[in-house]
């Protein structure tokens, strides 16, 4: 226990160790980490009702807010720990006016980035160069889209955190000139205006750099392998984006999501779609174009008339909770690739010239045979695997007989609100691939709290959204 902090103990330590630590360190309940999370926030995230009670009994403030103005109850609600929400509502905050009807939350995981992206300033090479070379600017390194992190195996409450480098560490790998060949792909992510670290500056900059040493990498500078080996000798390592990214604090997760989506787009689209030449990266990694023609050369179509530059793509996906006309049951399905017992909402990509409502109804009919009527918007979630935007909705079923498409769904069924609420209580909070290992008496399980499907189901089952009145 000697190496564990109060945050570790609140998140994953034994009840005896936590209470012993608090008895010896009574002011520990007021400590905050770099994201202004208190021990109560950590206990709420990990579903530790016993730890929540122990902390509150010893003076922890249930209304303390983090850097994103969220209380421990907000954190518990996001991760679908409704029992902890009820504890706060009924035992701790009965006179605060907090409704027992769970608050409607739309800040999904990967959303709510703290960065101002400065799209209007990216074309300004002088401004961009000044931002990149600042001592305070943080660099995140990627190897085949795996971020370099510090992995704390002895800290179960916070096992993975991004490791940040400075410009001097990566200077030889990148070029500040927009189209210089032979350098690594980099991406200006934005500036955190809440983190003012140098007088006269508006905030801390963030940059992502791909240093994949693979022979297939678009440009190898040399020294990548040695750089990585040295970093690993200091306890750093590249970690698979899934599931490690889901263990990051929400602020870092949003930053990594942006980096993953746009780096992946750059690496997948190295050639001009008009003439086939290798294209170059401009505007801090947010635009690609083939080189301008030299004198006497024929110009690419991309440089004639309206400029045919390439910009990062976002693929919209509609994901929908199908609700019966009486509002008391919902329809879920499972694909063959899902883990055992795992069920989720129906989802599918939008097609060109298709509205959200039309997409929802089409996907429902194609995958289930059910005819849907009214469509209600819930929220959206960026999903950087590789570049989707999940558009969460609810839809009222006009028919209930279903014939699941065999190529899409292995099985599907109607579930009551009570069944969904019980499943939410046992929903695994870190990795949907482990959902089937959760101990439950039910025949099905749902995904973790970071999935928008769970947020939609929670909104319906807890009464936030009433399809008959919305």
Automatic annotation (TrEMBL):
Enzyme Commission number(s) of this protein: 3.6.1.22
Swiss-Prot/TrEMBL cofactor(s): Mg(2+); Zn(2+)
Gene source species: Gonapodya prolifera (strain JEL478) (Monoblepharis prolifera)
Molecular function, one GO term: NADH pyrophosphatase activity
Summary of subunit composition and partner proteins: Homodimer. Homodimerization is essential for its catalytic activity and protein stability. Interacts (via ANK repeats) with BLMH.
Function, in words: mRNA decapping enzyme that specifically removes the nicotinamide adenine dinucleotide (NAD) cap from a subset of mRNAs by hydrolyzing the diphosphate linkage to produce nicotinamide mononucleotide (NMN) and 5' monophosphate mRNA. The NAD-cap is present at the 5'-end of some RNAs; in contrast to the canonical N7 methylguanosine (m7G) cap, the NAD cap promotes mRNA decay. Preferentially acts on NAD-capped transcripts in response to nutrient stress. Also acts on free nicotinamide adenine dinucleotide molecules: hydrolyzes NAD(H) into NMN(H) and AMP, and NADPH into NMNH and 2',5'-ADP.
Pfam family of the protein (one): NUDIX-like
A single cellular component GO annotation: cytosol
SMART domains associated with the record: ANK
Primary localization class, coarse: cytoplasm
Protein location: Cytoplasmic granule; Peroxisome
Reactions accelerated catalytically: a 5'-end NAD(+)-phospho-ribonucleoside in mRNA + H2O = a 5'-end phospho-adenosine-phospho-ribonucleoside in mRNA + beta-nicotinamide D-ribonucleotide + 2 H(+)
Domain of life: Eukaryota
Classification via PANTHER family: NAD-CAPPED RNA HYDROLASE NUDT12 (PTHR42904:SF6), NUDIX HYDROLASE, NUDC SUBFAMILY (PTHR42904)
Keyword Ubl conjugation: no
Domain Nudix hydrolase, chain residue ranges per copy: 312-440
Keywords: ANK repeat, Hydrolase, Magnesium, Metal-binding, NAD, NADP, Peroxisome
InterPro entries listed in its UniProt record: Ankyrin_rpt, Ankyrin_rpt-contain_sf, NAD-cap_RNA_hydrolase_NudC, NADH_PPase-like_N, NudC-like_C, NUDIX_hydrolase-like_dom_sf, NUDIX_hydrolase_CS, NUDIX_hydrolase_dom
Family listed: Belongs to the Nudix hydrolase family. NudC subfamily.
Record's protein name: NAD-capped RNA hydrolase NUDT12
GO BP annotations listed: NAD+ catabolic process; NADP+ catabolic process
ANK repeats: 35-67
Class of the enzyme per the UniProt entry, highest EC level: hydrolase
